[in-house]
Amino acid sequence: MTLVDRVRATFAPGGPLARRLAGWEPRPQQEDLAVAIAESLKAGEHMVGEAGTGVGKSFAYLLPAILWADATGQRIVISTRTKALQAQLAEKDLPFLQGVLPIEFTWSVAVGRNNYACLRRMHKALANAHTLFPEPDRVAELERIRDWAHASPERGVRDELPFVPAGSVWDEVQAEQGNCLGVECPHYAPCHWQRGRQRMQHARVLVVNHSLYFADVALRAAGVRYLPEHECVVFDEAHHLENVASEALGVRLSPGMIEWQLSRLAGRDGRRGLLRKLKLHDAVSLVDHVRHRAAQWFGVVDTQLGHNCELRLHADAPFDASLAEGLSHLAHRLVDAADRFDHEQAMELRSRAERLGNAAAAVRMFARPQADNEVRWLERERKQVVARLAPLDVGELLKEQLFARVPRCVLVSATLGPPANGFGWMRQRLGLAEARTLCVDSPFPYGDNVKLEIAEGLPDPGRDSEAWEREATERITELCIANGGRALILCTSHGFVQACRAHLATPCAEHGLRLLVQGDGPLPQLIAAKRDDPASVLVGTDALWEGIDIAGDAVTLVVLTRVPFPVPTHPLVEARAEAIARSGQSSFYGYSLPLAMLKLRQGFGRLVRSTTDRGRVVLLDPRIVRRSYGRHLVAALPACGNEDGYPHGGEMSG
Questions:
Q1: Helix axes 255-265, 281-305, angle to 10 degrees
Q2: What DSSP character marks residue 157?
Q3: Which of 98, 283, 405, 508 is at a distance of 20 to 30 A from 462, taking alpha carbons?
Q4: How far apart are CA 284 and CA 272, in angstroms?
Q5: Hey, what domains does the chain have and what are their CATH numbers?
């Protein structure tokens, strides 16, 4: 049988899926996507596929990919954006398919090396705990990590800990590149990292996240790699690739990052740290000198940012390289001192010197004139100033470092942007010139189960945001109370989230409706609370627009507060818009509108998560019916049960 025949046989009525999956029913869209992926794998082509909610994307790409890997002996990599999807693949979908398919295959989840505990470093840290950590609670955390590590955790990664360790504590026990004895280590046999590496090397299916994958792309560009060789990668949640690639291929620098490295060598009080333990007193003085230079450097950065949230840096180099020189000098001192110590201590010194060298290289990037294909900016994050650099256009980089090197890249998502020219907008952004493409609709009955409404009578949020906010919060309150809660309110700013809280708190309390607001607890806990209390109202911003799955009666009302355009004043958005305008295109239609379309569709998709889900999606942005671009946005949404096919007219239409 050909690969396509095997795929069709698996999806056929009476086939392996039908026999083993309770409640299975044929989904033509799922089979069409799986067949297209199989054909692209067989032909050695890239593939781009959009599949609406409910198609069952994971089986549609896992089945042909696993069958192809079995037939060819090749490895496949599955890359996702969210941990939730990673967990679904590794804990649910792959084990199920292992029992369904008549072949044997192995899989593993790959995480970055510093997610693993190094037993050797852990024991050394315990031996010097009171020198490293004057705080008793930090020493107690270190002892808890020891107890956990000796209890034989499944993988030995940080996420398995029953608590969240302080960064300074985990930094002393994490596995590190260049700080490993390999087979000479007395802890080699039980080493969590070595076991993880072996699982990664032997797995037929390797599950990773986008950040790790593109970090590996950056490493490959420098001539090294972390992930094993592979001929095929499947990117689920592929609409995030441009942003994730920009992050991974860019630079981020903050005072906390520099201080982190320095404090590992010598604390501010001079009474702890590696250098004190090794009696390298002259190097301690160098740490203090670099610390002073870092304070001066970031002082200039902070002054330049002022009271702004973000500030774009233009072509001229705004900062000197003195901090880079200090970091490099300290790094060289550590390398020179390493020769005086035993192998383990020398390796520790060289490892820390390498990180200082990386920090120095990052500083130099801000001290030189700006390159053509980059944008640099400052932003404030948790009261610290952060210097950022990102490629303006990742397309050329990905064309060379990804699509030309991995012959079979499969990109799938529920939303990929404008479908014209085979998703030409997204492929152009990513540098993917040639690819097989397919778009399959959701099997869910939107026309029967969903009503789209637009509050046409509200003020224009782009022209009078204060008036719009006053009326929109009132409308949200009315909608939630009339619906008996069971609502998800999707906002485009944290400020409006708090405005919603202020207006909803009293009415919700009076009607016995629990109000859940993003930021009041970890997101998974808020989602769990929403499921446990279906009548509750959940309010939030970016993290709730996609990737959450709350099926059933817990969400029968989704309120999309505004069209989610990217913030035009953000330095990266602004620079990319300018680049598009310089090419003679419209930055609005060529960048801002497609991004808004993507996010709007994701938000809309939070309502219907099963064939029986039903309810209303209400959009509180009247620009949808007042501006010419509105019809493009509505046309991108699934056809709903509105009588005339397009909501308009009246205070609340539909």
A1: 170
A2: B
A3: 508
A4: 10
A5: 3-106+203-245+394-440 (3.40.50.300), 113-197 (no CATH), 250-391 (1.10.275.40), 446-635 (3.40.50.300)
> Can you tell me the distance from the alpha carbon of 170 to that of 156, in angstroms, rounded to the nearest whole number?
13
- Strands (E) across 557-644 are located at 557-560, 615-619
What pLDDT shows up at residue 489?
A: 98
- Closest C-alpha among 65, 90, 91 to residue 10: 65
69 vs 203: CA distance, rounded Å: 11
Structure tokens that stand for 571 in this block: 């330095």
Calpha distance 306→378 (Å, rounded): 10
Phi-psi region of 176 (alpha: psi -120 to 50; beta: other; left: phi over 0): beta
- Encode 260-300 in three state secondary structure: HHHHHHCCCCCCCCHHHHCCCHHHHHHHHHHHHHHHHHHHH
The pLDDT value recorded for residue 647 is 44
Give the per-residue pLDDT at 643.
42
215 CB contacts (<8 Å, ≥6 apart)?
A: 112, 226, 248
**What is the rounded CA–CA span in Å between residue 444 and residue 567?**
32
The per-residue pLDDT for 640 is: 87
- How many angstroms separate the CA atoms of 219 and 234, rounded? 19
**pTM for the predicted model, two decimal places:** 0.91
pLDDT of 270 reads 63
Residues 232/65, Cβ–Cβ less than 8 Å:
yes
User: What sign does the dihedral 136-141-142-148 (CA atoms) show?
Assistant: positive
From the number of C-beta atoms within 10 Å of its C-beta (0-12, 13-18, 19+), residue 563 rates as buried
Write the CA distances from 90 to 108, 156, 625, integer angstroms: 7, 16, 44
Q: What tokens appear for 407 in the block?
A: 């012959």
Sheet with 384-391, side-by-side order of all strands: 251-253, 384-391, 374-381, 310-313
List average pLDDT for each run of 10 residues in the chain, which is 654 residues long.
Answer: 94 89 86 97 96 92 96 96 87 92 92 92 88 84 92 86 88 89 90 92 94 92 88 96 94 93 82 82 92 94 90 79 94 94 90 93 91 92 91 94 96 93 95 95 91 92 94 97 97 96 96 95 89 96 90 95 94 94 94 95 92 94 93 90 46 31
Q: Which residues pair with 312 in a beta bridge?
A: 377
211 vs 199: CA distance, rounded Å: 20
pLDDT, residue 271, reads 66
Size of the chain in residues: 654
